[in-house]
Amino acid sequence: MKKNLFSTTLTMLCTVAMLLAATLKMQAQTPAEWKAMKGNVTMYMTNDMGRNGYYDQKPIAELMGHMGETLGPKCVLAVGDIHHFNGVASVNDPLWTTNYEQVYSHPELMLNWFPVLGNHEYRGNTQAVLNYGTVSRRWVMPSRYYTKVITGKGTSVRVVFIDTTPLIDRYRADSITYPDAHKQDMQAQLNWLDNTLKTAREDWVIVVGHHPIYAQTPKAESERTDMQKRVLPILKRYHNVAIYACGHIHNFQHIKMPADDIDYVVNSSSSLARPVQAVQGTVFCSPADGFSVISATKEQLNMYMIDKDGKAIHTISRRK
């Protein structure tokens, strides 16, 4: 009887092991599957990362590097809150080492990083974030808002980087917590954005900023209404913006609004995520943490939401 019991137990354990292995195989992403994401232009987007490598920041950073061996991204869009919780004090702040240099150390991440300021950067020395390019050659931030055209194999993608914190009244009004926000010329930035989009002729145009225009979040509704009032009309004016992508909310969201051709994307935190629920316009949402891969050819633009296991859990696709 003991022999039969042992045999039965062993069979059950083997069955469980095989089922577990099959499940892991279904969930796993392989370099061959990652290769299918590669376009003529391939980029990463990450944000809300700065946790000194804790939580999932270091594993996600290592995943970005590992996937980079297959995808060969041209650059990283670092869309704010690189440094929680009070920004940095200077270009020599130790947080540059513990939040960034020692975490994103994979050889495939030694490429251009194009940042924007998040609300947490605005709690500290914002000029130090711009000036860090004098210390690290991969940190490329020519201004608080700027634009870059990324090209490859005959495909062009214009990425427009906006500085959203000074566009929101609640930050401008709190000069104690966010001392630099009210000093920025809001109208000058909006005029620049309008002119940049007016003259954009690339295959694809993507606008990125730290704060959302649409999102499910317990954060102050005035953040979104200020963005809808000030930024949204400009994004819609020239009918050439494919995606507006942001961070700030710490989860993945893809929103499409009626009679609006723009895809609104919230990219999750690359360290510590939060719960999320569907709202009006939600196409997809997930409380997973991770990052995104943006991939373009002349005919198609894809944005893949990647969880911490390297699985593409949702894809935003645009076709010409």
* CATH architecture verdict of the largest domain: 4-Layer Sandwich
Low-confidence stretches at least 5 residues in length (pLDDT < 50)?
1-28
Proportion of helical residues? 25-40%
| CATH fold descriptor of the largest domain | Purple Acid Phosphatase, chain A, domain 2
Q: How many discrete structural domains?
A: 2
Tell me, rounded to a whole number, the average pLDDT: 92
CATH class of the largest domain equals Alpha Beta
Provide a descriptive summary of the structure in words:
A hairpin with a 4-residue loop joins strand 12 and strand 13. The protein has two domains: 1-30; 36-319, 4-Layer Sandwich (Purple Acid Phosphatase, chain A, domain 2), CATH 3.60.21. The protein has helices at 2-27, 31-35, 57-71, 95-101, 126-131, 169-172, 186-198, 221-230, 232-237; strands at 41-46, 75-79, 112-116, 146-152, 155-161, 204-208, 241-246, 252-255, 263-266, 282-286, 290-296, 300-307, 312-319. Mean pLDDT is 92; it is low at 1-28. The chain is built from nine helices and 13 strands. The termini are far apart. By secondary structure, it is α/β, with parallel strands linked by helices. Strands 4-5-6-7-9-8-10 form a seven-stranded mixed sheet, with helices on one face. Strands 3-2-1-11-12-13 form a six-stranded mixed sheet, covered by helices on one side.
